[in-house]
Amino acid sequence: PNTITCCNLICGCIATYCAFHHAHVLAFLFILGGAFFDFFNGVVVGDATTGEILYGFKENNPDAIASTSKLMTYLIAARYLELGRVHMEDTVVLSEQVGALIDFGYGILPVYTGSEMTFKELLAAMLLPSSNEAALAVAEHVAGTEAEFVRLMNEMAQTLGLETARFYNASGLPVYAQSLAANVQENQMSAADLFRLSTAVLRKYPAVTEFTSQKKMECPSLDLELENSNTLLYNMPECIGLKTGTTDEAGCCLAAAVKTTKDDGEHILVAVILGGNNNIDRFQVPQLLLTWARQQ
């Protein structure tokens, strides 16, 4: 507990300093070096426009990625939208499998087996409040079954060269094997590969930010407002996403993106952290890294 508190205190002090001295943001972090970033399972900041990684720490170590997995779920869904095999206005009837997920306590929406939502609403619910039931419904609507969708996810990971990526479901939830001797399986990849996945989504389907840049979106089918779990949207006006993730194994994760202007035009910067201890880690560290990256 003392170590975690110390890390949070350092992070808070650096954030305060950086509010007035942006040019020296990473000077503090580099002085602290591994002593600061060693608390994380992986850290990366890079330029998604060029594909260049500007800084990384434990960036090639595969680890659980929780709901940041939903970036791959979106990538597959966007591909099928592009092919015309599914449509934003499609009405999706939630299946018994989706209902079972909710019954197990993994849902956040006021829905049940037989509820109806549009495909666009499911994407919004998946990307903003990180609905696991929406991710499953998206997977089933695209591929018929989650198992087939997972095959598509792993196939796409290979196509993108994400060598550390392993997917077991569309949501990022832990998968409990029937054998008690087996370990719990979770979707995983390295911070560097999550940066590459984020870059691929932003390049191929930039319309993702029409969801992820929104603090809130309406969901008419359920007569409710969906709130984005990425609070960096409130702290960095130039933030356009992307995705939070949390499980006990993965810790607090984030893939964050901001727009910035450089001499050769507009760029998108992406910061990834895996394994943060809490929301201070999840949001302040990427903010520091992105602030530094904007000066490069």
Describe this entry's structure for a reader.
The structure is a single chain. This protein is an alpha+beta fold. Helix content is about 40%, strand content about 20%. It contains 12 helices and 11 strands. It has helices spanning about 1-20, 25-30, 35, 70-85, 95-105, 120-125, 130-145, 145-160, 190-205, 210, 230-235, 280-295; strands at about 40-45, 50-55, 65, 90-95, 115-120, 190, 215-220, 225, 240-245, 250-260, 265-275. It has a 5-stranded antiparallel beta sheet with strand order 2-1-11-10-9, with helices on both faces. It has a two-stranded antiparallel ribbon with strand order 3-6. A hairpin with a 4-residue loop joins β1 (about 40-45) and β2 (about 50-55). α1 (about 1-20) runs parallel beside α12 and α6 (about 120-125) packs across α7 (about 130-145). The longest helix has 17 residues, at about 1-20. The protein starts with a helix and ends with a helix. The model is unreliable at about 1-10 and about 15-25 (pLDDT under 50).
How are the SSEs placed, and which strands pair?
Blueprint: H1 2-18, H2 25-32, H3 34-37, E1 42-47, E2 52-57, E3 63-64, H4 70-83, E4 91-93, H5 96-103, E5 116-118, H6 119-127, H7 132-143, H8 146-159, E6 188-189, H9 191-204, H10 209-212, E7 216-219, E8 224-227, H11 232-235, E9 239-247, E10 251-262, E11 265-276, H12 279-293
Antiparallel strand pairs: 1-2, 1-11, 3-6, 4-5, 7-8, 9-10, 10-11
Helix pairs in contact: 1-12, 4-7, 4-9, 5-7, 6-7, 7-8
Quickly list its features.
11 strands, globular, two-stranded antiparallel ribbon, 296 residues, alpha+beta, disordered N terminus, 5-stranded antiparallel sheet, 12 helices
